[in-house]
Amino acid sequence: MDRRDVLRATVAGAAVGGAVAAGAVLTPGSASAAPAFTSARPLRVQILTFAGVEEMDIIAPIEVFGLAKALGGAITTSMVTVDGDDPVVAVHGSRVGPVRRWAPREADLLLVPGGGYRRADRPGVSYEIQRGVLPAAIAAARRPGLTIAAVCTGTMLLSAAGLTAGRPCITHHRAVEDLRAQGGVITEARVVDDGDLVTAGGITSGLDLALWLVERFLGADLAVQVEQVLEYQRRGTVWRR
Fold first, then answer.
1. Position 17 pLDDT exceeds 70
2. Which CATH number fits domain 35-232: 3.40.50.880, 3.40.50.10610, 3.90.660.10, 3.40.50.720?
3. What pTM was estimated for this model as a whole?
C-alpha cells in the first residue's frame, strides 16, 4: 500500500493517534471528518506578503490552494499586505501581486511565509521583525476560529509576535536554534500542527504544509487529487498533538 492509499483509508474511517511517516497523519476527527466548508461558505485563506518574501514560500501554497479550488474544493485564496495594495518585490526580484489590504477578520487561515532572515539591513523577515509592524499585526490578528500557519522563517515572525513560546513548532534548519532560544518547543517534523498554530520547515516544505492544510480542512480525497495533478508526493512527517 503506497502513501496515497493510506490517505484514502482515512476517508474510510481508519484512524490512529500521533504521526505517521511520509506525510500521512491519521487522527480521530481530523481529515476523515466531513469538511465543514461549502461553496456558500468556503475556507478563506490569506497569504501574507512583504518586501523580501521568499518566492517559493508563497508560490507553493498558492499552487496547491488554487488546484484545490479548481478541483472543486470550497476554498478562496488571496495575498494580503499591511503596507497598502501595491505589488511587493520578493527576495529574488519577482514582483508579487495583486495584493489586498490586510483583513485577518475575513480569514479562516492565515499563512505567513519567510525569506531574507539573515540580513536585517535589507527587506525580509529580519527587517520586518526589527520594524515591528508585521509581528504586531499578527499578534493582534489572533482570535478563536483563525488558524495561523507559517512556512520556513515565517515561523520567526510568529515567534516575534509571541505565538510560538511554549508551543511545538518548526522553522528552516538555519533558524531552529533562534526559535528554540525564543521559547519555541522544537519538534523535528516536516509540518507541526498544534491546532490553531501550524508551522513547517524550510522553503519546499510549503508544498507539504499546504497539502496538509487541504487535507485537514477539505478532506484527504481532495489532497490526493491535488498531489496527482502536481505529480508530487509529500515528504516527511506531519506531527499533530
1. no
2. 3.40.50.880
3. 0.87
